[in-house]
Structure prediction request, 737 residues.
Amino acid sequence: MITSSMLLSVLTFVYFGIFMVYLLNFLLKNRLSFFPSVLLLLTTLLHGFAIVLRWIESYKLGYGRAPFTTLYESLIFYSWLMGALYLLIEWRIKSKVIGMFVTPLTFLALAYASFSKDINKTIQPLIPALKSNWLIAHVITCFVGYAAFAISFVVCIIYLFKRKAENSAQFSLIPSKGILEEINYNMVVIGFISLSLGIITGSIWANVAWGSYWSWDPKETWSLITWLVYATVLHARLTRGWRGKRLAILSIVGFLCVLFTYFGVNLLPGLHSYATM
Amino acid sequence: MPLKDTGIWNFFKSVRLTIILLIVLAAIALIGTLIPQGKEGLRIISRWNPTLVEFLFKIGFLDVYHSSLFRLLLLALALNLVVCSLDRLPKSMRLYRHNRLSFGDTAFERPLARFRTKALEHSSAQNILRNALRLFGGRPEIKQEGSSVLYGFSQYGKFSYFGVYLVHLSVLLILLGGLIGSFLGFEGYVNILEGDTIEDVELRDGNGHVHLGFKLKCDKFFVDFYPNGTPKEYRSTVTLFLEDRPVLTKDILVNHPLEFYGIRFYQASYGKIPAAAILKVQKDDLLIGEIPVELGKQTEITDGITVEVLDMKADLMNRFGPALLLRISNPDMQPKEVWLFKNPNALDSLPEQMRKSERFNTKVFLPYKLQILDVKEKYYTGLQVSKDPGVNVVWFGFALMIFGFFVTFFYPHRQILIRLKLLSPGELEIVARTNKDPAGLESKLERVLSYLKKEISLEG
Prediction:
């Protein structure tokens, strides 16, 4: 019987393969047509199935809990969300270039989850602090935000590339700078609202579990820092008319904050320590 | 001079100030995560260079989130939000009232679509226009000009200009809620042994106690583990007493606090400490009795003599074994405090001088002799106790913020104006406008246009 973690280990390599396919498609000037997208769609479905499978496995172990509580599980969910969100965008803008940058992120997240020695893959029972209906709402909203910010980051990187080599023939496959800016803005808006919802659900939960809706726990504080940076991005664009390189760099700073909120905070002591295991 | 032209107004209305404040607040919040904060942090920091620590203390970086610098910045942000919003509000009001495509030729200088139509009856033309406008959304308005020109107008989402103010108001409410909490609320904790009752809790910031106004007794504490050893459940069963009458018995679990008179009790920690013992009492080698004593309680061990257990250790200083700190009173003498050890040779390793200390002198009991038979451990439950009257204001702020986001980002003000010339052949022109999401408007217009073309186009 195949287990979810076995399936996910296999999928890690599949994602690397998909990255290669997207790269090849770019070099062949889109001659692979819809093949990369279909491949990614099927893999994403399989990946989603693995998450559901893990949920079922937890019931078989008698724990019965949503698969969103450990670092391993969050990485799996995160990489799945990035792929799914990217597919939506690809469908909207009909360009596969962004996929060349998103699939390696998905691959890296899954590879870290599946093969790092520091990560425990077993299904642990829920400790009392996590036994709450707020868990699912909190984790999903936060990670939808993180995923949107990841796409924003990728788009900003592409934007900076495109700026450097606007007239090269190979780069003509890349969407125009205007479209890239538009995607970045949309991703920042979606990410910002999701992150706000994540912080809000987290606050409500903390008020029930820890006795205060805000305790300046490092993860809380870093999520606020991230929120402030993206609030700056939105104000800079909407009221000061920032565009182009400046806004792209500010968005990239925002994503670095996301990464620190997600991983870096684990180096600091705090109440969110169960997310490091 | 009106407030609006003053330098202060101009300073606080700038969005550049907002951007600077947001970034500085982020930077200071960041500092707070790098330098260990508060009482907990002091333990780590005490190993750092004292001059540095003193400097950090002076600028408030050892408790940065409660420092005057941080509060001042939050105040500046609040002012900035208020002034900036008030400054922009009139413009939004104008847009709300007057941003409207007006009937007449000027609106149609650059129409988005124009095509020739079949000859139409007046009434059927009105119907088709109305249907097209309903497809667009909003309440259709039809206006006739002369005998052969019909205008159709519709709009929705005028409220969208105010979304941003809702978001700003929500931030102010959240800050206000925090302020109310910090003035009228408190955060404390209390450890209660099973069977004990408390009516005071210690404040987290070390500023003394809070009197609850009712009593809370821990009837039982219970901890359960999964087979692999991970904790599964912590549960305190407590009873509340109002004027010594029990009024409520409930379980407090993690994620399931108990609220009583606006004060909330959270399961925060637990522990086990030695809390009960059996004392064997002899007089001149004659057994008088084996008497149970409890931590913090006074017990009469024989006529007139009482002991109060001040402290109890399972292994004093990790070397002397079980020990009890007793305060012994008897009608004839001053109360004395003495450490009693279970192991009679416990002190042998100490220098003579120390062994002779009054603190260890069990001769004060004579002619009675006390011996510890058994030390029993008991659970205590650690409860976080807090009161925050500002919390509902914060919740309201949260809800308003989310609502405000949706209005701001996803709720556009869209309008459409159609002019239909009823000639043979006739002519139809469309103009439309949106304040956000132009792609959304386009796809909507496509639907309207395809309906109109199907119904009345000369070619269709």
Summary: The longest strand of chain B covers residues 263-283. Chain B is about 35% helix and 35% strand.
